[in-house]
Amino acid sequence: MAARKKSEEPSINIDEVLTDEELKAVANESEPAERKAKSEDGPRTVVVAEDEAVNRMDLVAMLEDNGYEVVGQAANGEEAVELTRKYRPDVVCMDVKMPRMDGITAAGIICDENIAPVVMLTAFSQTDLVKKATGAGAMAYVTKPYEESKLLPTLEVAMGRFAEINDLLDSVERSERKLKETTDQLRETEEKLKKAEDTLEERKLVDRAKGLLMDKADFSEQGAFRWIQKTSMDQRIPKKRLAQAIIAKYGDPKPSDSGER
Hints:
Blueprint: H1 2-8, H2 14-17, H3 20-29, H4 33-41, E1 45-49, H5 53-65, E2 69-74, H6 77-87, E3 91-95, H7 103-112, E4 118-122, H8 127-136, E5 140-143, H9 148-216, H10 221-235, H11 239-250, H12 255-260
Parallel strand pairs: 1-2, 1-3, 3-4, 4-5
């Protein structure tokens, strides 16, 4: 019996169940998340701005040896700004003194546009320029000669600060957006409430005017309402104002008026 049951089972070709594209998709989904994240993140990208070619080459070699990807090299501040705008790197290494546009001016432009964090490269004798650089928005600075033990942690600190500031800015923007949405909803609610109050007041006045027409002018309830409605439309007078006019003419005199009489 078991042998006969096995022979009766149909043989299924896997190609008839899943296409090649679907099989690839399943294979990708089964890839470990840690490995996928690592491949998607990639190395940190850097723009290096240093007018002295030898120093620039040494700095680039040091960064690349430590897993950074140097996407642009600039010899002056203008090139540094252009390359930063083009490549939008994770961090910029910027020398303070450069031709055409100095590093402080270039750092100020990059920071104002919030493109990337800037780490200034400076000599020991340039403490006054360091203050100007940090005032321009530079996240950190490294003194020459460049050492891995100083440079690499400084880059990480600068990128971390930049991320924290942007997270804070995003939070502020979300809060402001939420506040605006709440304010708009409150204004809309107030307008609806005002409209509802006006409608209720109009209805009360129309009901009172209708009753006066029934009492003073011998209208039926339906006829009084139709007269108010038609007169309002024909004369283009709001029903509220028309009802007030009817009440003023046919309504009971005010206590002050009756006291004068």
